[in-house]
Design a protein that fits this description.
Layout lengths: L1 H21 L8 E3 L5 E3 L6 E7 L2 E7 L5 E6 L6 H8 L2 H8 L6 H19 L10 E3 L8 E4 L5 H4 E6 L5 E8 L17
């Protein structure tokens, strides 16, 4: 029940944010699906958006030029840490993760995971084996796409930003390289009518 309520609040926030951006009521926001199943605004010239939620928080990314992807994760222990990393990270990412001191490894894991998820959402390539076909940097001071085995020019075309979030959360945004700066704003629910 708690997860269902969080999902509902995240989607209410999404509709409210997009409605404000479009100058319409939240109930008037119309969605469509791209060929890969990714939701988008129905209007042809509408801004791009993406949503992620975890724990008590949600992230909504909106940009005039898209596509874009955002991912948010609450930091919590991952019992199958090695199995998840082995199944979804590229060999160079695994090598970088293995040299991170044990006390910082979980944070590094989530930082890498959110960067990868945001890229998958921006490009629409889907999860699973595709996660190992591209590599993200692991260093906190230099988020970037290092390579994409299916697109040699991808690192030039995509920007990766780590987001400043409340303690206990990690998030990343992937947007076109020419996109403007990232800003994070708190959302306040509109007053009940």
């Amino acid at each position: 029940a708690r997860d269902a309520e969080r999902w509902q609040v995240a989607h209410v926030a999404l509709r409210d944010i997009l409605g404000r951006r479009l100058g319409v009521s939240a109930s008037a926001v119309a969605f469509a699906l791209e060929a890969n199943g990714k939701p988008r605004l129905a209007a042809a010239d509408a801004p791009a958006f993406n949503l992620s939620h975890s724990g008590d928080y949600a992230l909504v990314a909106v940009a005039d030029a898209g596509p874009l992807g955002v991912d948010l994760e609450a930091l919590k222990p991952v019992p199958e840490f090695d199995d998840v990393a082995q199944a979804h990270f590229a060999a160079d990412e695994l090598a970088a993760l293995r040299v991170v001191p044990e006390t910082q490894r979980l944070d590094a894991f989530y930082r890498l995971w959110t960067r990868k998820e945001a890229y998958v959402k921006a490009t629409g390539i889907g999860v699973g084996p595709a996660l190992a076909r591209f590599a993200m940097s692991l260093r906190p001071e230099a988020p970037q796409l290092l390579r994409d085995d299916d697109d040699a020019r991808a690192p030039e075309r995509w920007r990766v930003d780590d987001l400043t979030l409340p303690s206990g959360y990690v998030g990343a945004l992937v947007a076109p390289a020419q996109a403007g700066p990232t800003t994070v704003q708190d959302w306040t629910a509109p007053p009940a009518a």
